[in-house]
Design a protein that fits this description.
Strand order of the largest sheet of chain A: 1-2
Radius of gyration of chain A: 24 Å
Order of helices and strands of chain A: HHEEHHHHHHHHHHHH
Number of strands of chain A: 2
CATH architecture of chain B: Orthogonal Bundle
Structural class of chain A: mainly alpha
Largest sheet of chain A: 2 strands, antiparallel
CATH class of chain A: Mainly Alpha
Low-confidence stretches of chain B: none
Distance between the termini of chain A: 29 Å
Number of domains of chain B: 1
CATH topology of chain A: MetI-like fold
Mean pLDDT of chain B: 84
Helix content of chain A: over 70%
Oligomer: heterodimer
Helix content of chain B: over 70%
CATH class of chain B: Mainly Alpha
CATH superfamily of chain A: MetI-like
Number of strands of chain B: 0
Strand content of chain B: under 5%
Number of helices of chain A: 14
Number of helices of chain B: 13
Structural class of chain B: mainly alpha
């Protein structure tokens, strides 16, 4: 009671936000958890009935769910892997070339644009670039004797198309974050390394990588959490197809909820997705908490 | 000599990378200048055949203007609410340490949650409240994305402020409210601006909630862009013109906030 009286001002400032977040987040999540135990068909809410864990059992038995999980894993690993490799390479190049001087002002505005584009727009612009017969991508690849590929229209390249769009959008982000990490390293370390005659690879291996592990953890976790939510680009670029080649878990859950109206089933899948998210978010909390101490 | 050569190679790689990142955006802008049939032209035209803004005008009349207006209303309201509440809650977390680290982090984690985990109940709730296809419904759901972010960012900006000034003001007889209003808020003004800019960008680009909760009246720009497919095939010049309309405001804001871009996009983890 005393504690409340002492902190009444702080609690008062906090209250409206907590109430709103409860309404838009906690309540829906509890409700999602609740209906995940029901056979709930959206157009007939009154005929919903309790079925226990049956939705979960059915999901775990469903080959489509595991396929969607596999697609999500492939999408996540390949796009984050490429973003990391390209991002680190570019960050080191930028650092090495400009030593963080005023040059930052020159390249930053140029490469920050992709991450600001709405994912829906990214999806459409890439559809335009991927057009089989008239698209610039196949035209340019033709000069080096490749293609033409049908990109999003073929099951063998559709997931790759999605990965390329994601790599395009988020590599600049990874680059900028890693660059910020590298710039925060004391320049004396690099000067000492120069005096000892270290080459670029040795500097990367023994100075940069060990000192930016926290930044790497942050950027990889953020990208993982983002890819778990990925829905917009799939919706526009491929609609999960052709066939099931680009059906990610979020899109499969969305389809079940808003196309097949199997709401209980979709809810159970969201809960599974939420558990994965919580595990990743806990990792994020550890990284952030360590820094504040 | 060899040093010069490696230097040229590095510049060349940087040049290719920048080209790669800018090309799709360039392509979007030149497609807005191409007549519908020229999009389907071989070889593809890398320089616009004519400079016309006629498709922007067509896009504007073809739902684009209406959607731009809706997006502006929804995004502005969301930004104002999220920033004001974010300042209050962020200050409370930073100065009164309510809930230590874990309560604020729990708030932030809402931002990381997949929208599909909350979307069905929110849809049912909005349906029962007869709020489907209203600005209010979309503003409320956009708070789910922006408010946790705003609280977390403002908490970080307030923690960065020196505590001594506020303590001195308290000793001089300012009330807690005056300390917040007269001292902490003005000092945190750049942080507030940055937080607001990011809230604007997140809400402006948000798609899934707007798609599920709007039909006609409250339809936002990303949803209209997504809808250019179903109406009469994809009308590429109109679609890209609307895309450009959606990109320009956020590009402008991103350039304004570029100094804080990394901090904002990493949720304050990397400054």
């Amino acid at each position: 009671m005393n504690w409340i009286r002492k902190n009444i001002f702080g609690l008062g400032l906090l209250a409206p936000s907590i109430i709103i977040l409860f309404v838009v987040s906690i309540f829906p999540m509890i409700y999602t958890f609740y209906i995940s135990f029901f056979n709930y068909y959206l157009p007939r809410p009154n005929r919903a009935y309790f079925i226990g864990f049956e939705n979960y059992i059915e999901i775990l038995k469903d080959g489509m769910f595991w396929l969607a999980m596999k697609n999500t894993a492939i999408f996540m690993i390949s796009s984050i892997g490429l973003q990391f490799i390209f991002g680190l390479g570019l960050a080191i190049l930028f650092y090495d070339e400009f030593r963080g001087r005023s040059a930052k002002a020159f390249y930053l505005p140029l490469i920050l644009l992709p991450m600001m584009v709405a994912p829906v727009v990214v999806g459409y612009v890439f559809r335009l670039l991927y057009l089989t017969e008239w698209g610039p991508l196949n035209y340019l690849l033709g000069f080096v004797g490749l293609g033409p590929y049908s990109w999003t229209a073929s099951a063998s390249t559709s997931l790759l198309s999605l990965v390329i769009a994601d790599v395009w959008q988020w590599t600049p982000f990874v680059t900028l974050v890693l660059l910020t990490g590298i710039l925060s390293i004391s320049s004396e370390l690099f000067e000492a390394a120069d005096l000892d005659g270290a080459n670029l690879w040795q500097k990367v291996r023994y100075i940069i990588l060990p000192l930016i592990t926290r930044v790497i953890a942050v950027v990889v976790l953020i990208r993982m959490l983002d890819s778990l939510r990925e829905l917009d680009k799939v919706y526009i670029l491929t609609q999960g197809g052709p066939g099931t080649s680009t059906t990610l878990v979020t899109f499969w859950s969305y389809l079940n909820g808003f196309k097949y109206f199997k709401v209980g089933y979709a809810a159970a899948m969201s809960i599974i997705l939420l558990i994965v998210t919580i595990i990743l978010a806990t990792g994020m909390a550890k990284v952030l908490h360590k820094e504040e101490k | 000599m060899s040093k010069n050569l490696t230097s040229y190679i590095k510049y060349f790689i940087i040049f290719i990378a920048v080209l790669f990142f800018l090309f799709p955006i360039y392509w979007m802008f030149i497609t807005t200048m191409k007549p519908q049939l020229e999009v389907m032209y071989y070889p593809p035209l890398f320089i616009p055949p004519e400079f016309t803004i006629k498709y922007y005008i067509e896009a504007f009349y073809w739902l684009g203007g209406e959607a731009f207006k809706n997006s502006l209303i929804i995004t502005t309201c969301t930004t104002i609410i999220a920033t004001v509440l974010g300042c209050m809650a962020g200050y409370s977390f930073a100065r009164y340490k309510i809930g230590g680290f874990h309560l604020p982090f729990w708030v932030l984690s809402i931002r990381m949650m997949p929208p599909v985990a909350a979307i069905v109940p929110l849809f049912i709730l909005m349906f029962k409240l007869k709020l489907i296809d209203t600005h209010l419904a979309i503003i409320i759901t956009h708070l789910l994305v922006t408010l946790p972010f705003a609280i977390w960012m403002m908490r970080g900006f307030f923690i960065d402020l020196p505590l001594e000034i506020e303590e001195a003001a308290r000793v001089d007889g300012c009330s807690k409210w005056q300390v917040l209003w007269r001292i902490a808020l003005p000092l945190a003004a750049p942080g507030i601006a940055v937080t607001a800019l990011f809230c604007f960008i997140f809400s402006w680009n948000e798609f899934v909630f707007a798609l599920v909760l709007s039909r006609k009246e409250a339809i936002t720009l990303p949803v209209v862009i997504a809808g250019t497919r179903t109406q009469f095939g994809i009308h590429w010049p109109i679609m890209t013109a609307m895309s450009a309309m959606s990109c320009l405001p956020v590009f402008f804001l991103a350039l304004v906030a570029q100094k804080y871009l990394v901090r904002g996009m990493t949720l304050g983890a990397v400054k």
